[in-house]
Specification:
Layout: H1 5-10, H2 12-18, E1 22-25, E2 29-31, E3 54-60, H3 73-86, E4 90-95, H4 115-123, H5 147-163, E5 168-171, H6 190-196, E6 205-208, E7 229-230, H7 233-244, H8 249-257, H9 261-264
Helix pairs in contact: 5-6, 7-8
């Protein structure tokens, strides 16, 4: 059952032997695995299994399910989560709410998946000329701080926590989710604030990849509300410099190794 939800269940004894207490899955919401036309050396079409082109934000990916007997992909996912929880292992999801599989101007036509057909100017950040504003490098940017889209986003998070049982999320390009409907950075983005202050999500872990592909870099400045953690990109870059033996890298590396107090003091994580 390799490469499936139940395959993870089979690996639980191994994970426990390693001392693992939490796993994070790459995107498992239903995504477009056929978006690329690439082929291997013998001409076989390759599948996009990276997962960052979400089609349906309320469905676990079918290809990762055995669907044995009467079990659906959702059933198998919930079973995996229950079995991991039974031995003290939490489940985090890498999630992609900054863009969708519908791409941009030259992507799939309206209606191919849904958001473009339902309400193009509601679900996507668009310029006054009607062009998709691309802060994600993927052709479009979800207009997550539009009130309607913020509610949809909130309900998706609630679904994965309360119905599917996950413990937290790592948000891909989370800085893009801090932009207003005109694409400008917001100090207090409503969508982020909404899920953070929901009392039913008080024990849920939120982790931000605190940058986007258009220069909005919020490492150390993400609107955390005392709850969010961040991917520390400065730590990553400092480690690379230290390993390369770059001049003057030792002092900064020591600071990063000790928790980056310059970035994450005063309640930051």
């Amino acid at each position: 059952a390799g490469g499936t939800y139940l395959g993870i269940v089979e690996k639980i004894p191994y994970l426990k032997e390693l001392g693992v207490n939490c796993i994070e899955l790459l995107p498992i919401m239903e995504f477009n695995e056929t978006e690329w036309n690439a082929k291997n050396l013998v001409g076989r079409k390759l599948s996009q299994y990276w997962g960052y082109s979400t089609v349906n934000f309320f469905s676990p990916m079918n290809r990762y399910a055995l669907e044995a007997g009467e079990l659906t992909a959702a059933d198998e996912f919930r079973l995996m989560v229950r079995q991991l929880h039974a031995v003290g292992i939490e489940v985090l999801l890498d999630v992609v709410f900054n863009h969708t599989a519908e791409m941009g101007e030259n992507g799939m036509p309206p209606g191919f998946y849904g958001m473009k057909a339902l309400a193009n100017d509601t679900y996507y950040i668009r310029s006054p000329e009607g062009k998709y504003m691309d802060f994600t490098g993927c052709g479009n940017t979800v207009n997550v701080n539009n009130p309607i889209v913020a509610e949809w986003f909130h309900k998706a998070i609630l679904y994965w926590v309360h119905e599917m049982g996950v413990d937290g999320f790592r948000f891909d390009l989370a800085a893009a989710m801090c932009r207003d409907p005109q694409g400008q950075p917001m100090k207090n983005p409503p969508a982020i604030e909404r899920i953070t202050k929901d009392p039913s999500l008080r024990d849920t872990k939120f982790i931000a990849e605190a940058w986007d592909c258009a220069g909005l870099y919020l490492v150390g400045n993400f609107p955390h509300y005392g709850t969010w953690s961040e991917w520390n990109g400065v730590y990553r870059d400092s480690c690379r410099s230290f390993i390369r033996g770059a001049p003057g890298a030792k002092r900064d590396f020591a600071s990063r190794l000790c928790g980056s107090a310059d970035l994450y003091s005063n309640g930051r994580k």
